[in-house]
Amino acid sequence: MSLTRSNGSQPGRARAEGKFLYVDDEKFWVRGVTYGTFQPDENGNEYDPEAVEGDFAQMAGNGFNAVRVYTPPPRWLLDAAGRHGLRVMVGLEAEQYVGYLIDRKDAPDIQDLVRANVRACAGHPAILC
After folding, report:
1. pLDDT tens digit string along 2-30?
2. How far is CA 47 from CA 5, 41, 63, 80, 85, in A?
3. In what order do the strands lie in the sheet containing 87-90?
4. Which end of the chain is more exposed for a tag (fewer CB within 10 A), N or C?
5. Residue 40: domain span
6. For the chain, what is the domain count?
7. Does position 96 have pLDDT exceeding 80, yes or no?
């Protein structure tokens, strides 16, 4: 089960129409699970590639089609999701900056941080939202 069709093409991007999501001409019913956050290893990596492959295989094998992560994932995680037919809902960690809405002193450039996180995932076929 992967996001690649039998003819080698990729399914379209998910899109909202009214209160439903569609991929190509079919309704996309989200059957999702949350994944993470995990304690980073000594190198700052939040995800272990071997564990992700096994976890995603089990998710897909149990009928899930989407996974929600709380932090921007590395591209290899998106690739793994695609191999298992999973779409990814990406968290951008923006909530950690909510305090700066009240007190802007020493605030980072939140718009730049969010844009960088979006760009890191943009265009990947496994992205749901």
Report:
1. 776 555 566 788 899 999 999 988 999 99
2. 27, 8, 22, 12, 19
3. 32-35, 66-69, 87-90
4. N
5. 14-121
6. 1
7. no
CA dihedral 55, 116, 94, 88 (to 10 degrees): -30
Mean pLDDT, rounded, for 65-76: 94
CA-to-CA distance for 89 and 114, rounded, in angstroms? 15
- Confidence (pTM): 0.83
28 part of a folded domain:
yes
Residue 91: CATH number of its domain: 3.20.20.80
Q: How far apart are the first and last CA of the chain?
A: 20
Report the C-alpha dihedral over residues 94, 29, 125, 110, rounded to 10 degrees: -10
What's the CA gap between 72 and 7, in Å, rounded?
30
